[in-house]
Task: inverse folding
């Protein structure tokens, strides 16, 4: 069965430090992968997506992610975080008719 | 602003009642998806409509139903509400049937008391 696993439920980090949010997926077929961000009391906003081609995907707000087929991973990275990056981040996989979401990672950026 | 509009933003109702959540997709989008976000279940897919027709069903209870109208807006009907139905309900839309470019609304927070 297809699934998405986010390995960390919470990631605390100081402002201007780098951060990596981990995501692993399980699928027997080719996948489309996404990262969404949810700010408090907001909907989900698409950060970036991998459909095909280059394995390094750049998104909005300085985030990027690397698709690694051999490790079935799609980790999200940012070289220097801001206080405003504090939010819940969801990794998701396209399953043709729906998105399968991970359980989310709460990124807390401290001054 | 994603362009997807959900109303109402908040809803408080009693157990046993029925409510209707409304979603207006982005202009030009033919697909509408409904998701439920709860603390214990996370984000779960409920149902998808494409151009008025049901295309996929997920973990949607029999007490819940949805439809997409000719003007492409969609409604999610929740009946015989239970405390456990309290959640954030999201609508998303995309041009095609796939999810490669799905845009989410801000959600309707349902509280059942």
Result:
């Amino acid at each position: 069965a297809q699934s998405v696993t986010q390995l960390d439920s919470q990631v605390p980090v100081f402002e201007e430090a780098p951060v990596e949010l981990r995501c692993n997926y399980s699928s027997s077929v080719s996948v489309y992968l996404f990262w969404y961000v949810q700010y408090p009391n907001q909907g989900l906003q698409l950060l970036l997506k991998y459909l095909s081609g280059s394995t390094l995907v750049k998104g909005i707000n300085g985030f990027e992610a690397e698709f690694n087929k051999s490790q079935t991973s799609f980790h999200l990275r940012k070289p220097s975080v801001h206080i405003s990056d504090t939010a819940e981040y969801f990794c998701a996989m396209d399953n043709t008719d729906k998105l399968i979401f991970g359980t989310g990672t709460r990124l807390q950026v401290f001054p | 602003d994603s362009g997807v509009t959900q109303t109402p933003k908040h809803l408080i109702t009693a157990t046993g009642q029925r409510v209707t959540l409304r979603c207006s997709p982005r202009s030009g989008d033919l697909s509408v998806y409904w998701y439920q976000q709860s603390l214990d279940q996370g984000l779960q897919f409920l149902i998808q409509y494409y151009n008025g027709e049901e295309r996929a069903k997920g973990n949607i209870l029999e007490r819940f139903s949805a439809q997409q109208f000719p003007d492409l807006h969609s409604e999610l009907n929740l009946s015989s509400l239970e405390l456990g139905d309290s959640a954030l309900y999201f609508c998303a839309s995309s041009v095609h049937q796939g999810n490669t470019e799905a845009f989410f609304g801000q959600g309707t927070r349902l509280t059942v008391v």
Notes: The mean pLDDT of chain A is 93. The first strand of chain A starts at residue 3 and ends at 6. Chain A touches chain B through 22 residues (CB under 8 Å).
